[in-house]
Please model this.
Amino acid sequence: MAEVIRMPRMSDTMEEGNIVGWLKEVGDTVEPGDVLAEVETDKATMELESFHEGVLLHIGVMEGAVPVNAVLAVIGAAGEDYQAALDAEGGAPATPAAAGEANSTAPAPTSNGSGAPATAPAAAEPAAAETSTGTQASPEVAAPTDPDGARKKASPLARSIAAEAGLDISQVQGSGDGGRVVKRDVESAIGNSDQPKQQAVTPPAPAQVPSFPAPAVQQAAIAKPSVHTNAADTTGGYTDAPTSQMRKVIARRLAESKFSAPHFYLGIEVDMTEAIAYRKQLNTLSDTRVSFNDLVVKSCAHALRKHRIINSSWMGEFIRYNEDINIGVAVAVEDGLLVPVVRHADRKGFSEINAEVKKMAGLAKDRKLQPQQMSGNTFTISNLGMFDITEFTAIINPPDACILAVGSIQQKPVVKNGEIVVGNVMKLTLSCDHRVVDGASGAAFLATLKGMLEQPMTILL
Model:
């Protein structure tokens, strides 16, 4: 019997996935564990594996955004009528397969004479992605192929850069696994290729290049950019970029947090002179280079053990006091922000915390973090000290009740024992959900944290 494949929920915050490309075609034999397609979620680009054996009979959506639980494909016996399986599962896919189903056994749709199907479900309207000019781009353009007809394997970033440069990615030789085209291949092809750029379907080019192009972080997320100019003023312009799945979720979750949780903020200054000396001593005794962020994570973990209310969550009808101390560490990535979680941080040493944060930060930047590595946080730390930011306020990361913003260590005059001396001051700002935490509770936590950082030997007690 034919099996209908639906868009799985690949992370706790995922509401839709973006089909980057299919690695199998209609008519291909599929084994359990075979990778069917690449799916971009709000947190990573992941592989969609098959749990069934048979032949890929139907692809419902070639590329683009698909809601969770929407129909993606059908696997069954060769020549089997898959329409009955679709009907039994509750209807058609989110968008039609368009040109990707030339080998399908389903009957071709009737035409009204204009080249479009005479009838189509209401949800099928966004089947072909619209370009910035409002025209429709056919799925064949979105899925470049090798000269022998096989679909070209390429990373999402490589496709984005190639599209921006007008480069035919099917002509690029891949150096990744299995001949996959990666970023360096596209950049090399752009620098060395003599072929002319493809003519993009965009408005007439502006008379002058915009003075302020999109930042590199933003450019990486641009799949099909378009530059617009005002006829009355051709000296300026702007670039439209489609919103990535990650940015959509960041916008939704942080807006919900900011406007549903009543935030208040508590700031404190910490003298890091003893912490600097303590860190230097640790690094002379160990091969691991302990960072100031590791000191903050470890200190927060022990302070949270003394202040359970800070390690809690607002659940609507009740407040959840978490027994485990799982600290999320915000990591900036190419087109957004990911928060890998250090579990049981209070039970781990500095070296263990350092190795875990470093490993997960690398996975985050490569978009290879797994959902379980980004869930279960009970408290979050956002550190911008490495960017020389002295202080800032952070938006609470649900379901946490608090988030700590960490600034850089600054040398400034301080008073010690009645004398003015040079101090090493770091500013901390605690954002609190007033539904759970009151000012006195937040202040007590910061006082404990300050004491541990100013006398770091007490962390071991």
Residues 92-143, 194-224 have pLDDT under 50 and may be disordered. The radius of gyration is 27 Å.
